[in-house]
Known about the structure:
The protein is of the alpha+beta class. It has two helices and five strands.
Amino acid sequence: MDxxxxxxxxxxxxxxxxxLSEDQQISQRQLLVKEINDEYIRAYCLLRKQIRTFRRExxxxxxxxxxxxxxxxx
Length: 74
């Protein structure tokens, strides 16, 4: 996961994330990572259009954004 997070910071590559919130709600987000540490990531959330903080332990899945993958292939 750290490789993808760092790549998002360095290359401004959007990621898709499945996240479990504190109130046990699952959401899918598209984001651009701005900062990471051992417990949290700070990222620009394309859904909310603002910087958000996410607990790393609540990230269920993270992968390159499918739309951005196509642009990297060409």
